[in-house]
Amino acid sequence: ETGVTQTPRHLVMGMTNKKSLKCEQHLGHNAMYWYKQSAKKPLELMFVYNFKEQTENNSVPSRFSPECPNSSHLFLHLHTLQPEDSALYLCASSLGGGPASGTGELFFGEGSRLTVL
Amino acid sequence: AQSVTQLDSHVSVSEGTPVLLRCNYSSSYSPSLFWYVQHPNKGLQLLLKYTSAATLVKGINGFEAEFKKSETSFHLTKPSAHMSDAAEYFCVVTTSGTYKYIFGTGTRLKVLA
What we know:
Strand content of chain A: over 45%
Largest sheet of chain B: 6 strands, mixed
Distance between the termini of chain B: 41 Å
Radius of gyration of chain B: 13 Å
Number of helices of chain A: 0
Radius of gyration of chain A: 14 Å
Helix content of chain B: under 10%
Oligomer: heterodimer
Number of strands of chain B: 12
């Protein structure tokens, strides 16, 4: 049990589908992250939320839409994706970060393996 | 600006022999450095972290790393490899006051019986 739970673990969708990935953390952290992990590429930061407010959007296409209703939950809404969006999507959380605090480590979920047909 | 370079994309060792995974970093400020491990189809697990305390950091599963400012390195070592150590390892750098964690491209460790 990592403290960060992602669902679903596997998802197959067509290019016209709409689906969502969910992440939940039980660690009392303030910051939550979405990363994309593709084969033979470094981890790519997609979005960061701190206390429900988006602090980073790393030039992610609008077909990916994040939502953070509270500090414990993070969603990634997916629509009209492309086959090149197939990847492992990792959610993480941390305590701290931001201009006035120390930087703690990231705690990762197990990931959601997305396949776009 | 920050960056991290993992010098080897693949490392193979025999079971029971030492492991060395190399990481060099670049940072304009005092860095925090981490090593993570990822087993197939799993998330990343923290092995150890350096955050400006002791330069020799001990982590889980017998791993340790030494922060060397003069060499801008943070290499990961283990005295004796075990089959269960076979995985991908990531070196990560960040600084206080930021949400940007910079990941290396990973080193895949293979342990031979």
